[in-house]
Amino acid sequence: MSVKKNSHDKYRFHLALLKPRYWMTWIGLGVFFLVTLLPLSLVDWLGCRIGGLAANKNKKRFDIAKTNLLLCFPEKEESEIEEMVRQHFESQFRSVMHYFILWWRPVSYVRKRIHTEGFEAIDHHQQQGKKVIILITHNVGLEFAGAALSMAYKTVGPYKTMRNPVVDWMVANGRLRFGKNHENSLFTREDGLRPLIREVRAGSILGYFADEDLGDKSPVFAPFYGVPKATIPVLGRLAKTCDAVVLPCVCCYQADKKRYLVKLLPKIEDMPGDTDEMDSKNMNQAIERAIDFCPVQYLWTLRYFQTRPEGEASVYDS
Q1: What is the pTM for the complete model shown?
Q2: Per-domain residue ranges of the chain
């Protein structure tokens, strides 16, 4: 199956998206579009205000983020942690409001809202004959990291299908629109790893997310900020199979400059290593270094410590 078939053709608009069941989604997108006509400074303010309200109303997600931060930053006072959680909600909803930039604004405008650092490392490693995997952290602005990469290189990446087909169509095309000149592609988890490996071996840059807890997928436990975390040992295997270097990537919104900084960090040393445990430890340490550039913008509302070592109780309230 061709790359084009897997991406641009697969996510073309079709009339089924106009069925009555999706009309409210389209109305919501229309309202969202009108809001995005406001100045960016006002959009930022509105996103932060909505995020502040969400922090007060969504106790479940607030507590998940608080638990994660307490585990990862035990040296901080509880009041500091709660302030970090509030700032996280504000940054998360602010970045959601920025989706209009990726969906509807011209590419020239998008470029002005992204500043890249360290991208010369991709060219350097490619010139050395190596393939390249970008380890993208789950920051609130991760979509801008993907856009920055796909505007400059032929990329491939895994894609998690959205439940709502209209939203799925919007998000997928938001990721694909910047890479049309490079025939960039997306593959779902159901497609498996083979298509990703094939494209990387052919020269594509793989954007890979590896910091979620995926449950009973035969994980190893590796320290993450000193806490044992269920880690899927796939990244090292991909690096070995593709003869690739792994470059961590972090995306931080710089509110004063009204732009996203997409920064590539130095390659992960000893990746791949001798064991899955070694690879997982090195990967988590690299993710920590990336998070530390803008800690409150990491997606702390995910249950990163849901799976526990045998005999350990859940860290989250049921």
Answers
A1: 0.90
A2: 3-297
